[in-house]
Design brief:
single chain, globular, 13 helices, four-stranded antiparallel β-sheet, 425 residues, eight-stranded mixed β-sheet, binds pyridoxal-5'-phosphate, Aspartate Aminotransferase, domain 1, Aspartate Aminotransferase, domain 2, alpha/beta, 2 domains, 14 strands
Length: 425
């Protein structure tokens, strides 16, 4: 195996829930999807929205190719009006994942280290591992009304262990909390560069008073701060493959970042010409699309809250007393569950497996790195009818007063053995 790099190797197996889901799918038995956050498959947008997207793209398809390291000026000018950040401080990207990859190259040497929240979006540690960076975690702790970041005053000064930069997600995924004034003040003083993933910014509830980039520019920042966003969440268009970063902080640091990013981004030139030409039109369509997404989020959140009234052992965790952000909702359930596939395992995984056996797909909190075994995560973009129809199953199966149903068919028993084998690998 000497021909391959270590960083391209991903450990297989060990995720009991994902394997059980794959097996359930393979059986063809019904499975209600409460986890997808793909807006293109959530029945959200009517035909006229699809036609408007196609029209914007077709205009861009006629334009000549104009390579530009940071993206077409006209596209950045349109974005600048929405984000309230100067066009020169914007860089267009193929995706926020590409943004993370460029920022890893810009901000850290290899081997190196980056500070990430726990829990967080599960792709982040993998993206950084591919860049040769280890992750040092700082906690988001459950303060009761919501989750709050415990900022790392000082990470260990051991050689190679000090993170080169810090990443935060606001609104966070999956917990939904937003950076408050105190957190922004803390970040403003950080001596390390800070990356803020703000892809869910339009879905913060209550809405932020001004775009995050504009708020940052009003602060006396001590270091470089980079904000990430993209059409995937901003307009519910993951297939568009267009994202952006904005640069903030002391002028000399921003200028140096621009110089280096020009080199890095020019080696890739990822965003396609048609999508860049389409950006001004797509940004005009975004408010309407965000409204449809927000209606769905609100409708499903309400349905979940109403279900919890009938089942007081369940609780929707809000990011703050006033609201929540992002496209996931976190539900607190009793931590009393066991499952034959996780003999000495976590209660949240056991419960998620019972729910899978009953045809309901919800993530165990463990997949996002929660410490607590009481948390399940589901998408608030699920089809509302499918959500409402199956809430009684969730209520019945999480009832701590009722033992979980026994799994008795021979087929079930053999699946359990297979899962145990996968777990042991
Ligand atoms: C916090 C966060 N950032 C970024 C992304 C991905 O964005 P993109 O589609 O632009 O790569 C996701 C996707 O779910 C996410 O949850």
């Amino acid at each position: 195996m000497g021909s391959f790099s270590e960083r391209s190797d991903v450990a297989e197996g060990g995720n009991v829930w994902a394997e059980a889901r794959a097996r359930r799918r393979a059986t063809g038995l019904p499975l209600v999807d409460w986890v997808t956050t793909d807006p293109t498959r959530a029945g959200l947008f009517p035909e006229e929205d699809v036609v408007a997207f196609a029209a914007a793209l077709s205009q861009g398809a006629r334009a000549p190719y104009t390579p530009a390291a940071f993206g077409l000026r006209r596209a950045r000018e349109a974005l600048s009006e929405v984000l309230e950040v100067a066009p020169d401080r914007l860089v267009l990207l193929g995706s926020t994942s590409e943004g993370y990859s460029l920022l890893a190259k810009l901000l850290a040497d290899v081997p190196g280290c980056v500070a990430l929240p726990a829990p967080c979006y599960p792709l982040l540690p993998l993206l950084f591992a591919q860049e040769g960076l280890a992750c040092k975690r700082y906690p988001l702790v459950d303060s009761g009304p919501g989750f709050v970041p415990v900022w790392p005053e000082s990470f260990a000064q051991k050689r190679g262990a000090d993170p080169s930069f810090l990443v935060t997600v606001s609104p966070a995924s999956p917990t939904g909390e937003c950076l408050d004034a105190a957190s922004l003040a803390w970040l403003a003083q950080s001596r390390r560069p800070v990356v803020i993933d703000a892809v869910f910014e339009p879905y913060a509830a209550p809405l932020l008073p001004r775009p995050l980039g504009a708020q940052l520019d009003a602060l006396p920042l001590a270091s470089l701060v980079v904000v990430l966003g993209g059409l995937s969440k901003f307009a519910g268009l993951p297939q568009a493959k267009l994202a952006w970063m904005s640069l903030h902080g002391p002028a000399s640091l921003v200028a140096e970042a621009q110089r280096r990013l020009a080199y890095l981004a020019d080696s890739l030139l990822s965003p396609s010409g048609p999508i860049q030409h389409a950006l001004p039109a797509l940004l005009k369509l975004a408010p309407q699309r965000q409204m449809r997404l927000k209606q769905r989020l609100a409708e499903n959140t309400l349905a979940l809250e109403q279900a919890c009234v009938a089942a007081p052992w369940l609780r929707v965790k809000h990011a703050s007393p006033a609201g929540t952000g992002g496209w996931y909702r976190v539900i607190e359930a009793p931590a009393v569950f066991s499952h034959p596939a996780v003999p000495a395992g976590r209660s949240d995984v056991a419960l998620a497996l019972h729910l899978l056996d009953a045809g309901l797909e919800l993530y165990p909190g463990e997949l996002f790195g929660f410490d607590s075994e009481r948390l399940l995560v589901l998408s608030a973009l699920a089809y509302p009818a499918a959500l409402r129809a199956h809430l009684p199953t969730l209520i019945a199966l999480t009832d701590p007063h009722e033992p979980p149903p026994a799994r008795s068919s021979p087929d079930d028993r053999s699946r359990t053995r297979a899962q145990q084998a996968a777990c042991a690998r």
